[in-house]
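User: Can you help me understand a structure? I only have the sequence.
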Amino acid sequence: AIKKGALPVGSKLPSENELAEQMGVSRPTVREALSALAAVGLIESRPGSGNFVRNPANSIVREALLILENESSCLEIMEARGLLEPPVASLAAQNRTSEQITKMKSVCVKLKHSARLQDFDEYFGLDKAFHTLLVQATQNGLLATVLLPLINTMDQRLYREFTKDFYIKDLQTLDELASLHQEIFEAVASGDSERATERMQAHWTRMWKVIQDQDEDKKAV
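Assistant: Let's start by predicting it. Here is the structure, written out as tokens:
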């Protein structure tokens, strides 16, 4: 409605009850949608007045709005990476340099620390750095061209909010994922291609389990 101009810049959004009735969804679903819109700066909440549409001219907001049109976009990114990164880990185990091993080790130590502190912003930055180093360790420019744009979506605020708010909510989840990164690193560092593949696959299997569990929780609500 905002994109089509039915809700122009500066206009006040209907109440949560009205939106839920108009769109045939529950109030919790409306709240999640409003939170996502606010996270990317498309609407603003004014205490005591309600929610109002902001100017979506900013390119980042326009990009986020396209993703918001279909929640599956974030899931498709995860799915694509889940399919592509296990063999990448295998190749990285074969071709990594000593310098890249040193950098990955440093990132893993910091990743574990940020997970225990539940510092999501630092965690996401380090997570991106680890996967970027892994792709670079393959020494294959074509793979980097294909995968790095997917990894770079981790910089999008919407992707981070989407992951943090709906799928990675507790210390145990972060700590388990950080441990899997450590296991991937150890396999790559030792040159064990088979284990590097298996551990990377376990990483994405773990992520999908978290997603499925959250989906089941939503359905239960």
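Now, to help you interpret it: The radius of gyration is 20 Å. Strands lie at 43-46, 50-53. Let me know which part you'd like to focus on.
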